[in-house]
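Record pair follows.
FIRST:
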Amino acid sequence: MERRGSHDHAATPDPEKITTVAEARELIDAVDAQLAVLLERRAALSAAVQRLKPVGGYPGRSPGREREIVEAMSAHAPRLGPERLALIMSAVIEAGLDAAAEDRSRA
C-alpha cells in the first residue's frame, strides 16, 4: 500500500492518486532530476560513439539507428508513441552531438 509522500519514482504514477498540484510538481521535479542525470550520461556515451565512428568523429546522424531507438523506447512509453518520441529523441541526439562537438573543440 502506498503512503502519501512515499512514491516509487521509477513507476508511472496514477494521476488519479495525486491530490494536489504541489504533489504533482514534486513528482515532476524528481523525474526531471533523473532525466537530467540520464541525459548527461547519454551525451557522454554519444560522444564516445562519435569518437569511435570510422568516419573519424564526424558528427553524423544515423536515421536507421534513430528509428531503432524510437521503436525500442515506444515499448516503454506507449502513451507518448513513436511520433512524439521521435521528436524528443531528435532533440536529445542533436544536443548530444552539439555537446560532443563542443568537447572536441576544447581539446
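SECOND:
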Amino acid sequence: MSRTSPAAAALALRVWGRMHGLVALEIDGRIHPIASNPAALHRAEMLDLVRSLGLA
C-alpha cells in the first residue's frame, strides 16, 4: 500500500479546504447573495491560493 507524503496530503487538504466552501455554496444556490459573479469569486480565490503557495 502506497502512502501519500505528509507534505502532499497537507497541500491537498489546503486546496480542498479553501475551495470546498465556495463550491458547496454554489451547489446549494447560496452564493448569489454573497457574490453577484461567482466565477469571479472562484477565480480570485484560486489566484490567491496559487500566490499563497508561491506558485505565482
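COMMENT: Helices lie at 6-27, 38-52.
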